[in-house]
């Protein structure tokens, strides 16, 4: 009985603490038309301290979305255009000689900010990608002999263009795994596109207001961790992850040779965190199976390795995830 009382108390607290979600969404919607899934994904990443990989053709408001989010949270924002000639120093900063001080001083790079948009990340060579990787994983940057902590909140949103493959470097699996979510963006609907035209032809383009401070986000992250997750839900998450590794144990023999490697334990952690953040966004103090299912595709789509056989049969990771969700028993 005691537990039920606790859940009730948690639920009340989350309802109160998550009131800013609606305000934030309203501000985002002033500028971003449609793209509900992108806005939700950005919120999940922000609340669960995870980075986001975005895939979509140019012109789908990817830069605008993260720029708007930075405005709403009153945080620092920098956009880095990744190109084949980019060097790690262009990202992290470097030591420069100061004649005034007669010594080398550190000039910090654009990574020292709250929100980083890494545009077309797959255009940069491996050296630059690994420099970004340290920043994403360790939340710190080393320049010369000194290591600098990055500011909180720190969110990397990287975009990759699925069309052009010339002059691009595919992201290594280890790096892709560092992204909590991979969101695939689609074109807007007809009425949304009409609205986009209106926005852009208006005398003044709509602007979002700053309604939060970075500290509010850090506090909200602590609250998200308090969202209650039952043992049954934990087992459900583990089952989903295990089904990507051993599909035959879950009645999916047909996928046994289609998957070259399954999701890592990092996927289970991300799935749990994202489900909690999703429950928080829905202003609920406990996680239900629907929350897990809602974030499952975004968390797992980039973490399942497909074999040549899968590619020959046009089997995608999306199809495998959908099948897993149909097969694994829901608590």
How would you describe what is shown here?
- The mean pLDDT is 86.
- α2 (19-31) crosses α4 (62-72), α10 (231-245) crosses α11 (265-281) and α12 (289-300) packs antiparallel against α14.
- The protein has helices at 2-17, 19-31, 36-47, 62-72, 88-92, 126-138, 173-176, 190-201, 214-225, 231-245, 265-281, 289-300, 308-312, 317-327; strands at 51-55, 77-81, 93-98, 103-108, 115-119, 140-143, 146-149, 155-160, 179-184, 259-261, 305-306.
- It has two domains: 23-219, 3-Layer(aba) Sandwich (Rossmann fold), CATH 3.40.50; 228-327, Magnesium chelatase subunit I, C-Terminal domain (Helicase, Ruva Protein, domain 3), CATH 1.10.8.80.
- β6 (140-143) and β7 form a beta hairpin.
- With 331 residues, the chain is an alpha/beta fold.
- It has a five-stranded parallel sheet. A two-stranded antiparallel sheet has the order 3-4.
Query: Reading side by side through the largest sheet, how are the strands ordered?
Result: 2-5-8-1-9
Distance between the termini: 21 Å
Main sheet overview: 5 strands, parallel
Determine the mean pLDDT. 86
Question: What is the CATH C-level name of the largest domain?
Answer: Alpha Beta
Q: What fold name stands as the CATH topology of the largest domain? A: Rossmann fold
The number of helices is 14
Q: Secondary-structure element sequence?
A: HHHEHEHEEEHEEEHEHHHEHHEHH
Number of domains: 2
Strand content: 15-25%
CA radius of gyration: 21 Å
Helix/strand class: alpha/beta
Backbone shape: globular
Write the CATH architecture name of the largest domain.
3-Layer(aba) Sandwich
Number of strands: 11
The named CATH superfamily of the largest domain: P-loop containing nucleotide triphosphate hydrolases
Percent helix range: 40-55%
Uncertain stretches of 5 or more adjacent residues: none
